[in-house]
Design goal:
The complex is a heterodimer of chains A (198) and B (248). With 198 residues, chain A is of the alpha/beta class. Chain A contains 8 helices and 5 strands. Classes of the chains: A alpha/beta (198), B mainly alpha (248).
Chain lengths: 198, 248
């Protein structure tokens, strides 16, 4: 085995463009499409943990009225590339690591993909293990399981409500459990709380 | 969805071929009490025999297979409402009479060797979930369905209207998803592994089924009933009844 191929996830509403891109990538021999989906609703970062790069049509985000920053990370923080059918929108394209046009030659596309990977590597370094709950998150989880409100938790830990909400989002995301009842079950089964306290 | 081959279901298709193409549809047959042993009969033949509209049957099958992608209520009309309610009622009794008792038994078996606290916690979680679902079903059985049936008979339905029903789905799906993750990821080691597999499979099955159930309510029932409501509200003064006569 020689060099590793880059895994690419394509999020593109047009089947023709998506499959065209995918076969182009395959031909280049440098990368391979690990997934093709046609809207953000089908995107689940936990399913595409191997994606090094996401190539996406900005219109899928425009539909939601959101930007790149709202795309949940997969564990490796993929590079994000916009694919345009027409002229670039200067303001929007700044959010991406790089933009490709459907009229770019295969060589240009593969050059741009490499450039995007380079630029995203810098971002990647600070990412640590994202899967285990941190000590802080465990404490907050216990408080949630005990039925405390966000306001009470913020007060107890001397943090802002906004921070509490972020912690709770991260906890739910890591565990795949959203309801308070479900979080309580988790906390008890993992001996984070003493059931006698109930 | 993109990688799935789309089979266009047709009422001329043999029922057996349809089921081999999409085995998840077995559950639809189960809900509708359609017996196996259909030989070479087509979907149409079987729908005829069971008094179902083939359009509605195919619509339900499409929802089961493709989710929200293809519910096409254009093929349906007001006369299908009774069929939709029949299907929804059948689902309810499937859950209450068969599914929940069985799952309860399995959860109990799965946790038998675990510590009492874990067992109790999980049981309570599931009981709460079940209660929520039952409440939702009761609301449909006691409020929504009678309201719709009255409408079909041309009786105006008081202040209630079907749009308020759509808001009622709440967090039932969220809880089930949590339950699934707990079973898959976080039970104590002492939980019985074979039963745990069974429970997980069953939860996945019910999850898809409930999703289909919700789509049928929101995308088929609600629009059709809204159409009658609007019809009644404009026609009230002229005829005082629905625009389509129902047998009896």
């Amino acid at each position: 085995m020689n060099s590793k191929k880059y895994n690419i996830l394509i999020i593109e509403p047009s089947y023709i463009v998506a499959y065209g891109l995918s076969s182009l990538l395959e031909k280049s021999g440098e990368s391979v499409a690990v997934g093709i989906i046609n809207d953000m609703a089908s995107y689940d970062n936990r399913k595409y943990v191997d994606a090094d790069i996401i190539i996406l049509n900005p219109s899928v985000l425009c539909e939601l009225g959101t930007g790149v920053s709202t795309i949940p990370d997969s564990s490796g923080k993929p590079a994000i590339i916009a694919v345009y059918y027409g002229p670039y929108n200067e303001r929007i394209s700044k959010e991406y690591d790089i933009c490709i046009s459907i009229f770019d030659s295969p060589q240009t596309v593969s050059k741009k993909i490499k450039a995007a990977l380079e630029s995203s590597k810098n971002k990647r370094t600070e990412e640590k293990d994202r899967n285990e709950l941190s000590e802080r998150e465990k404490q907050i989880l216990v408080a949630v399981a005990k039925g405390k409100t966000n306001k009470e938790i913020a007060y107890d830990f001397n943090i802002s409500i906004f921070t509490v909400i972020t912690h709770r989002k991260n906890i739910s995301h890591k565990l795949g459990i959203n309801s308070i009842a479900g979080l309580t079950v988790y906390a008890i089964m993992n001996k984070l709380i003493d059931p006698a306290e109930f | 969805m993109m990688n799935k081959n789309i089979v266009a279901f047709s009422s001329k298709m043999k029922m057996a071929d349809m089921i081999s193409a999409e085995p998840e549809l077995i559950l639809v047959l189960e809900h509708l009490d359609i017996r196996l042993g259909f030989g070479e009969d087509t979907v149409e033949d079987i729908c005829d025999r069971y008094g179902l509209s083939p359009e509605l049957f195919l619509c339900v099958c499409n929802i089961f297979t493709y989710g929200e992608l293809i519910p096409n209520p254009d093929n349906l009309d007001i006369s299908d409402i009774k069929g939709i309610i029949r299907y929804l009622r059948a689902c309810h009794s499937f859950y209450i009479d068969d599914y929940f008792p069985e799952l309860h038994g399995n959860i109990h078996k799965m946790m038998e060797l675990c510590d009492k606290v874990s067992e109790k916690t999980l049981n309570k979680f599931f009981d709460d979930y079940e209660n929520e679902i039952r409440k939702h079903f009761d609301y449909e059985e006691n409020t929504v369905f009678p309201y719709v049936e009255n409408l079909l008979e041309g009786k105006a339905g008081g202040r209630y209207n079907i749009k308020s029903f759509a808001k009622h789905h709440g967090n039932i799906e969220e809880k089930l998803n949590d339950f699934k993750n707990i079973i898959m990821k976080y039970l104590p080691e002492s939980a019985s592994s074979p039963v745990r597999f069974r429970v997980l499979e069953d939860v996945y099955k019910i999850e898809d089924d409930l999703t289909a159930h919700t789509i049928i309510e929101d995308k088929l029932l609600v629009p059709l009933v809204s159409a009658i409501e609007e019809g009644i509200y404009c026609k009230d003064r002229q005829h005082g009844g629905s625009d389509k006569k129902e047998g009896k």
